């Protein structure tokens, strides 16, 4: 039997060295408002919002990121064009490390956030 769920990816966690600074970075780049949660575990974390209550998302948490660019890549939806998101990514202190890459569903680019996490910025075809 082959396991084929509706969504294979169900959650993401991005470790960051300074939660407050990371919240500012991700809010600025992805033009969102992460929700700080302080009452659900041993450490506070910041959740990415979704339009639906049970939307697939994730959070930032105080942790030790992998060495620069060596961890898994998390792809995050762009709020506008890929180029605008890439510009904000670099301006906010991240490093854009690729040109836009087209795929059938849209385009994406790779970046390294200020903590060294590998981040994909993804824009769907419209």
TrEMBL record:
<feature type="domain" description="VOC">
    <location>
        <begin position="7"/>
        <end position="124"/>
    </location>
</feature>
<dbReference type="InterPro" id="IPR052164">
    <property type="entry name" value="Anthracycline_SecMetBiosynth"/>
</dbReference>
<protein>
    <submittedName>
        <fullName>Putative enzyme</fullName>
    </submittedName>
</protein>
<dbReference type="Pfam" id="PF00903">
    <property type="entry name" value="Glyoxalase"/>
</dbReference>
<dbReference type="InterPro" id="IPR004360">
    <property type="entry name" value="Glyas_Fos-R_dOase_dom"/>
</dbReference>
<dbReference type="InterPro" id="IPR037523">
    <property type="entry name" value="VOC_core"/>
</dbReference>
<dbReference type="InterPro" id="IPR029068">
    <property type="entry name" value="Glyas_Bleomycin-R_OHBP_Dase"/>
</dbReference>
């Amino acid at each position: 039997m082959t396991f084929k769920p509706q969504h294979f990816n169900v959650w993401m966690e991005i470790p960051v060295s300074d939660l407050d600074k990371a919240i500012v970075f991700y809010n600025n780049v992805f033009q969102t408002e992460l929700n700080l949660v302080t009452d659900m575990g041993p450490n506070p974390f910041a959740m990415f919002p979704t339009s639906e209550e049970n939307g697939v998302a994730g959070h930032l948490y105080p942790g030790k990121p992998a060495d620069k660019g060596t961890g898994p890549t998390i792809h995050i939806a762009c709020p506008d064009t890929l180029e605008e998101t890439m510009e904000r990514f670099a301006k906010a202190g991240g490093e854009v490390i690729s040109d836009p890459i087209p795929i059938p569903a849209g385009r994406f680019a790779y970046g390294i956030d200020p903590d060294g996490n590998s981040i994909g910025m993804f824009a769907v075809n419209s």
